[in-house]
Amino acid sequence: MAGANEEVSAWLDAAVDPLVACDGDERISFLNRSAERLLDWKREDLQGQPVSRLFPQRLHQHGDQSLVRYLLSRRDALGGRPTRVLAHRRDGVEILVELTVGASGEGDQERIILSLRRLHEVIDTLREPLEQSNPQDTARLVETHSSGDDLYRLVVANAPLGIFHYDTTPVITACNELFVNLIGAPKRVLVGLNLLSLRDERMMRCVRETLAGRSAHFEGDYSSVTGHKLTPVHVRFAPCYNDAGEVEGGVGIVEDVSERRHAERQRDESLALLRILFDSAPVGLGFLDTNLRYVRVNERLARINGLPAEAHVGKRPLEVLGRGGPATEAMLQEALDSGAPVVEREVDTEAVGFPGPRRLITGSCYPVRTPDGHLLGVGALVEDVTQRKLAEEERERLYREAQEAIRVRDDFLSIASHELKTPLTPLSLRLATLERKLERGEHVDPTTLRHARQHLLRMTGLINDLLDASRIEAGRLMLHPQPTRMDHLVEHVLQAMEAQRGIHELRFEHPEQAVQVFADPYRLEQVISNLVENALKYSPDGGLIRVTLQIRGELALLSVSDSGIGIPEDQQKLLFERYFRARNVSSRSYGGLGLGLYISRDIVEHHGGRIWVESQVGQGSTFHVALPLLGTSAAHPPAGPSERRLH
What we know:
This protein is an alpha+beta fold. It is built from 20 helices and 24 strands. The strands form six sheets. Strands 2-1-7-6-5 form a five-stranded antiparallel beta sheet. A five-stranded antiparallel beta sheet has the order 9-8-12-11-10. A hairpin with a 2-residue loop joins strand 3 (about 60) and strand 4. The longest helix is centred in the middle third of the chain and has 55 residues, at about 385-440.
């Protein structure tokens, strides 16, 4: 008996049509290989399961009968003809099949057989021959019909787009090969597919719209329910009408938009990159149309123009930039008219009337065209170069100062070597003279020794000035202040310089009372000596040197006047700088290292005083020193006649 069952199973598996067998309780006992392929089930998974699992829930009951019992009750009425129903695949897809139901036996011995047949495509069905009374007319009609139908098939089959047709069920009844390739499922699976069993709600909405007589569009990633392919598609749905004007189904035209999506993605990425570059560029960028109205500006240009970016759109530079608008529009119009870029025009915002603080801006503009040469507008590139220009000016200033420092250094080295050599040569000669006289036992003239000592003192003074300048620069110049009679100190200095005055006249105007200050006598004497030496040096032979000391309020005011060459006004503020020599002073005619006034200024300021000069070229100079009197060291010295000459 087992062998007989196996033989029957083998015969059933060899059958082309899908077959399902169940018992009287409508539980599946067997299905052949064709049924497994059609329904995507394995027989071992369905054995013992209700046969209703093979059909949608809505078809399970017909009145008080199951689907199977209902079809069995109508078997005689159907006369063996199959009934079209929707079957349920394992993956949930509904497919249209022709179902024939038969039964044998009764009670526990009842056996029910379901024969299923998948509907073929309409395009593959055979045409029935037409019988006409006139053979020639019939031949012509059949030939014409056949040629038109074949042409239709040819067009559909070779269309560059996927095409499918569905009825009002709505079940796919036909499709071309390109649609099959796009979806990625066999034609035998697609034909008979119920579109309302798809998972994509948007797709099903389009189908409903079509059956209601309205066209619809779907675009998205279509995920095949019969396969595993994900395809970006654009589907145009349109209703189909019969001769009575009623909707009898619909047609879908499917386009694979993978390449378009890729191109759009590349375009979007490029636009996003351009947008990032545009918005984050370190310079101002803008685009204006051919009517010179802003289309877009980045944040940098918006900040330069002093308005938000959105406030530019649709406006002309005249409306945005105020008085600076005409110059800007003229440059932009020049680029439009000439068709050539206008590069790096520098603008001083203050000069052209731009709003806000003064800035230095460079602007460039260029025509913007499509690939075919159509003029779209003009692009603008604007850079605020204020800081860069200021930095360049500062570098130039520092460079000039460095060059001047090098020149001053070279002049100083030349002057210093000359000044040190000047007393050294006569000192060497006089010492050699003394040496010869002593060797011969001759009498030594005291004048020779005195001159030698004077040269030695001069050289010592030059060296001391260099040392003092070095101490001042390092902040190590030490003072030892004590109560000092300034009037006595001035008299002492003038007496000591009696031998140096030559034919000059030194006149000291004494104060009416004693002048006492709290100062370092040695350093204060150094200041007085420097001022008197300069007066003697730069005055013509026989000129008058007037020294005045007086009390003004809580200050002692010393003035040294000469009738010498004077000092140019623009040089006076530099007179107290290290190594400085006025340009009307010849180093060959007037010796010195240019350190005396520099040292004097530092000494006076460390005593809480001030020093300044009044001078006119060719009319001499007067140097003033103001120091607090003893007991009033907190007093502030006067600014003098001209604050800009004060040091």
